[in-house]
Amino acid sequence: MKNILIILFLISVGCTNTKVKVEKSTEGNQHNTGTEIFVEPIEAFREFIDDGKIHKAKSIIDSLDVNYIDAYGNSFFEQAINKNEELLHYILSNGYHLSDGNKRALFQYTKNDTSLFKTMYLPYIDLNSGVLEKVIRSCDSELLNIILNRGEDFNFSFSLNNEGNTSNYHCSCLLNLCESTSIEMLDRLIDAGMEISVSENQCLLVNTMDEGIPKFATIEFLRELIGRGYLKESKRWSPLVSTCFWNENGAVKFLLENGYNPNWNNSSDMLYFALTRPGDGQGEHISKEQRLTTVDLLMKFGADPKLIVKADFGKGENSMNFVSFAEQWKLENNTDLIKLIDRY
Hints:
By secondary structure, this protein is mainly alpha-helical. The protein is built from 18 helices and 6 strands.
């Protein structure tokens, strides 16, 4: 009996553009839209694609509302994007409302083909609905040029939701993920009107959006950024703070060689940061030797351990210099640290 009903449905789809309404039933092969119940057509749609009967598959799109929202709501789109580009284009051009998941899938489908990206992605996407973020994450400067050349006013910030908590970020926070295309993309974004504030300088230096160990900019990217006038040290900010804190010694050395102040704000804070382990267990990978290497680098470039540590211990401003702090350092045995300080 079930086979007979399916055959009758296939015949009706091939002969008419009217919707197929049925009485309410518990049959698993039927679909409830909330106000009407339709025979589930996805099996027929899939068979028509597999048999190469694209005109028949199109007739299903014409005869049914493919924008319903429920467990079956993405079935037509998913079948088309996986099996037939012509049908995918047909669904999109007939007003299919893309879900967030659809948008992500469509971006992945088109991002490696600029022609597809222009004809099958951009026409159906609001460019201020996260497209810029996706393109920068892809590190594809060609795609970035395509969307920026449309001349629209872009919002250069985006939001990430993590377990119900929403955080706002600037697009510059993504650039150090790209390495080889970072500078080219940065220049293009600046030309399009993106501005870089002090907080965005921190983003260019290190990506802290994802949980765990942050990703720092490469030395090549740092060199280009400094050459373009970014990462400027001020009373409010220095790139040495986070590089010393995470004992990124290649970056620390490079910054010191380029004139950054190891006695920033007339303090020994950098020496203090070099010995301070990041919280939440994220600094467990940093060895004592790495910390001492950071201290050694800072002192080679003139860090003065007799200056006051101005960093807040959680008890207000301190009156302790770094020598006093080192003498009571509890994180590790401090013998090697004291010897290192005495050497200078």
